[in-house]
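Sequence, please.
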């Protein structure tokens, strides 16, 4: 090992370590602490309420052990397909019913426990409610039925009741924490109210592309296909920013920008746009700062002066990488970005046409250091 270069040793150790110790879940320590606090509250409230409802009282909370595993999924990885309401409730209750049925049908406890867990996995998979703690619920049902002859009511109380209470607490917790639960993969809506996906979504991997890739991968991944597609699209956009990062807005912007003052009449602004064939027109205040932007659709808004109908534009600086404009200018909601200096005075304009021409004709450039994202409201 002494003859192996240090870099190779580090690489070998890194690969070996990553096989046994995966990356921590969640984007940061704060999210993990939130998950822990949610699980504490979820288990405590579930146990106490179930104890009261079933007559055990506050001093004797009634919980089944697999609820701890369900709490890990519900509070630590709420976006997982295995942590959604139907897999949690259906998986636990169905597994309990399977476990009790097997316990009554098979006398040997070792065979019964193995069959119960295997059958629970098969039925949960068929009913699309796979939930890992369901295996523990099936096991508990077998052992509980043998020890206390609890019967099929075990699936309703405490298993079903525990699960419903834990789900209710999880939904409330994630609402307060600002999380998306029950999880729905984010998808940008078309700006014009049509059924088409956004331009970036149409340019990226399709649903079929993702499905085919997952099929060929050959391993089950604990991630929703829609989430995976959104992550891939975001990664592609970041790669474009890195590839074209050296080209700045100041390199491609129009500098001789026709504009009007905020006190110009709407009729005058319309005449200027029609005369020059403009789709948009910056509006400056008395100090020369950009107050807003007028587009063809803005001309129909109520107002006597240009400043009355101007909307807030997308502001960038001359050193902003042009790749930062790919997302906002391809969304359909924006057609241009206004380049301003530190005092918000007009320096130039980057339109969709400028961006398209630059991306098509300029060669890829070296990565640029990260800069502030464009201001958009």
């Amino acid at each position: 090992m002494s003859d192996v270069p240090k870099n190779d040793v580090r690489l070998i150790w890194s690969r070996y370590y990553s096989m046994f110790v995966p990356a921590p879940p969640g984007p940061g320590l704060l999210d993990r602490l939130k998950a822990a606090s949610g699980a504490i509250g979820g288990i405590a409230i579930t146990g106490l309420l179930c104890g009261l409802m079933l007559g055990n009282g506050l001093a004797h909370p009634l919980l089944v052990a697999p609820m701890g595993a369900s709490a890990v999924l519900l509070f630590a990885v709420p976006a997982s397909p295995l942590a959604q309401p139907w897999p949690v409730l259906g998986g636990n209750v169905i597994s309990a019913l399977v476990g009790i049925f097997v316990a009554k049908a098979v006398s040997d406890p070792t065979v019964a426990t193995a069959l119960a867990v295997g059958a629970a996995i098969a039925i949960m998979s068929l009913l699309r409610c796979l939930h890992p703690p369901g295996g523990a619920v099936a096991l508990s049902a077998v052992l509980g039925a043998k020890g206390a002859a609890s019967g099929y009511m075990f699936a309703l109380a405490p298993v079903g009741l525990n699960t419903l209470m834990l789900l209710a607490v999880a939904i409330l917790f994630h609402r307060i924490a600002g999380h998306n639960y029950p999880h729905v993969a984010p998808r940008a809506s078309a700006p014009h109210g049509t059924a088409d996906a956004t331009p970036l979504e149409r340019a990226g991997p399709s649903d079929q592309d993702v499905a085919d890739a997952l099929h060929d991968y050959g391993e089950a991944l604990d991630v929703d296909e829609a989430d995976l597609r959104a992550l891939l699209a975001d990664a592609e956009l970041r790669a474009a920013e890195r590839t074209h990062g050296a080209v700045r807005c100041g390199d491609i912007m129009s500098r001789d920008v026709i504009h009007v003052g905020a006190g110009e009449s709407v009729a005058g602004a319309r005449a200027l746009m029609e005369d020059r064939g403009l789709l948009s027109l910056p509006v400056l205040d008395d100090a020369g700062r950009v107050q807003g932007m007028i587009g063809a659709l803005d001309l129909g808004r109520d107002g006597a002066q240009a400043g009355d109908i101007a909307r807030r534009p997308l502001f960038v600086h001359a050193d902003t990488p042009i790749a930062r404009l790919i997302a906002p200018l391809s969304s359909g909601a924006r057609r241009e970005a206004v380049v301003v200096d530190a005092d918000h005075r007009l320096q130039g304009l980057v339109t969709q046409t400028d961006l398209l021409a630059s991306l098509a004709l300029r060669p890829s450039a070296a990565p640029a250091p990260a800069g502030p994202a464009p201001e958009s409201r």
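Confidence is low (pLDDT under 50) at residues 365-370.
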